[in-house]
């Protein structure tokens, strides 16, 4: 019996005749008569055709709320707190970058988490839910502790205590985020039919970006008049909202199964990983994915301080850069959905993202000498666009590797490489900005480069080199022939 047959979700509109193509798959109980919701969702929401009779769009969107909570946390870590720590609290950029990168130290465990959730045997009959809920609790604890730790760091008499508390808060947040996201994406692949799994996972990433975009603009508006008290309220409000969103997302999603006696031991992680890595193109795809993630992520801890320090943007204004990034990212997903539906090669999509991101960093670099905030805003949006194309391209190719019940290890490996590369890049970017910036201001590189912008510019230039390396790694994976149009199933993807 297949795993989908063991599920017992509530089914809506089961007696209705299934219409042709996407409209029938998107039927919801309140829109079954005319398919109006299906047509609107297909036009406006990338990968909305991931829905099916067994996984209606409403249920899939409710599951995606855990991604909204992940996006909200990402905005706080990478779009708000880094700017506040560097500019308002006076914490060195290298320390801030290390703290932001610290949650990503847990990222390599994503492959192991995915593998364990593939074979978990809960006494309550769940596989994925215990991992998602445990991750949610860790994420809540980290966010609840974080604002107080940061305020203690800014006081010299208790800086050591604040630093220790901040390290713990960032580590808890990262561990919870990666655990919940890995198991949640694997749950989506369990619930979706085989030919809709890549689209279902991609739709969850669209919701991640939507959550980031909405959160960035809301937090940006709330922090236009920055006060420590308001920062505490926002971060702790995000902690509570994380619990609520994830609880709603998980409600009756995974059916409880009666634990059956194990007929054979679960495969060892080492053996499962060896079988996964032996597939043609797997290692090259993961290398390209890591280089691309590092290339677009090294600026995560620097773009907002860059706008605040050199262009005079407010806390709200720099937080809105994250919203522009998310808008570009969402546009990248929409474009990729359209092209992949026409049979485009996902590796070509990823390569286009790399080229766009290179142009984006050139725009960011020139924003400071021209004192043009518009160039920075355009660059932030283009970075998001390029990152979205890179992500959806490599994710689509990686999903082709999720066969034989190994969705957890495939998604975990992709996520681990992405997050680990991004974390290392963020740390290197912060350290490089501080060291090179101080050297430039001291006159080591000459009078022409004796500005605070030099450290930022070198880091952004290095990101361009990383993106060029990602394009080189992707090259041999590109297919010369065009895939069959209007197909988006695992069997049709290049590996």
Average pLDDT number: 75
Oligomer: single chain
CATH class: Mainly Alpha
Shape annotation = globular
Number of strands: 0
CATH architecture: Up-down Bundle
The separation of the N and C termini measures 27 Å
The arrangement of helices and strands along the chain is HHHHHHHHHHHHHHHHHHH
Report what the structure shows.
With 495 residues, this protein is an all-alpha fold. The protein has a single domain, classed as MFS general substrate transporter like domains (Growth Hormone, Chain: A), CATH 1.20.1250. Helix content is 69%, strand content 0%. It has 19 helices and no strands. The longest helix is centred in the C-terminal third of the chain and has 35 residues. The N terminus and C terminus are likely disordered.
Features:
495 residues; mainly alpha; 19 helices
List strands and helices in order, with pairings.
Layout: H1 3-6, H2 21-25, H3 36-44, H4 57-63, H5 65-88, H6 93-101, H7 110-118, H8 129-153, H9 159-191, H10 197-222, H11 228-250, H12 269-277, H13 282-297, H14 303-310, H15 315-341, H16 346-367, H17 373-399, H18 407-441, H19 453-474
């Amino acid at each position: 019996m297949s795993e989908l047959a063991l599920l017992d979700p509530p089914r809506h509109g089961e007696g209705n005749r299934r219409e042709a193509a996407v409209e029938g798959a998107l039927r919801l109980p309140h829109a079954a008569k005319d398919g109006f919701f299906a047509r609107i969702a297909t036009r406006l929401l990338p990968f909305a055709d991931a829905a099916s009779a067994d996984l209606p769009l409403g249920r899939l969107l409710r599951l995606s709320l855990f991604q909204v909570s992940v996006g909200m946390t990402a905005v706080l870590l990478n779009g708000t707190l880094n700017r506040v720590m560097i500019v308002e609290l006076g914490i060195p950029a290298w320390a801030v970058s290390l703290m932001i990168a610290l949650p990503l130290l847990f990222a390599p465990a994503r492959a192991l988490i995915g593998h364990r959730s593939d074979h978990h045997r809960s006494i309550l009959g769940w596989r994925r839910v215990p991992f998602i809920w445990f991750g949610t609790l860790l994420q809540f604890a980290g966010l609840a502790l974080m604002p107080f730790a940061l305020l203690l760091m800014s006081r010299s008499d208790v800086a050591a205590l604040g630093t220790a508390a901040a390290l713990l808060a960032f580590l808890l947040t990262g561990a919870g985020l990666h655990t919940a996201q890995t198991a949640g994406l694997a749950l989506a692949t369990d619930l979706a039919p085989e030919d809709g799994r890549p689209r279902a996972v991609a739709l969850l990433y669209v919701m991640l970006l939507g959550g980031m975009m909405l959160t960035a603009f809301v937090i940006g508006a709330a922090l236009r008049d920055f006060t420590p008290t308001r920062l505490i309220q926002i971060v702790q409000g995000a902690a509570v909202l994380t619990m609520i969103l994830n609880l709603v997302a998980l409600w009756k999603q995974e059916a409880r199964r009666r634990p059956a006696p194990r007929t054979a031991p679960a495969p060892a992680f080492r053996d499962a990983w060896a079988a996964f890595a032996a597939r043609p193109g797997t290692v090259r795809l993961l290398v390209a994915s890591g280089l691309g993630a590092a290339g677009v992520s090294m600026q995560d801890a620097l773009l907002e301080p860059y706008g605040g320090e050199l262009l005079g943007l407010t806390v709200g204004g720099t937080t809105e850069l994250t919203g522009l990034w998310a808008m570009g990212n969402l546009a990248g997903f929409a474009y990729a959905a359209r092209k992949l539906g026409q049979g485009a090669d996902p590796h070509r999509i990823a390569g286009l993202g790399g080229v766009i991101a290179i142009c984006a960093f050139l725009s960011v670099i020139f924003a400071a000498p021209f004192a043009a905030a518009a160039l920075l805003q355009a660059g932030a949006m283009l970075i998001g666009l390029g990152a979205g194309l890179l992500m959806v391209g490599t994710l689509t190719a990686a999903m082709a590797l999720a066969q034989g019940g190994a969705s957890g290890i495939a998604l975990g490996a992709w996520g681990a490489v992405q997050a680990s590369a991004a974390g290392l890049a963020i740390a290197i970017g912060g350290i490089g900005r501080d060291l090179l910036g101080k050297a430039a201001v001291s006159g080591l590189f000459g009078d022409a480069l004796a500005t605070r912008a030099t450290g930022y510019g070198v880091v952004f230039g290095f990101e361009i080199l990383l993106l060029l390396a990602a394009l080189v790694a992707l090259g041999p994976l590109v297919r010369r022939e065009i895939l069959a149009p209007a197909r988006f199933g695992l069997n049709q993807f290049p590996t």
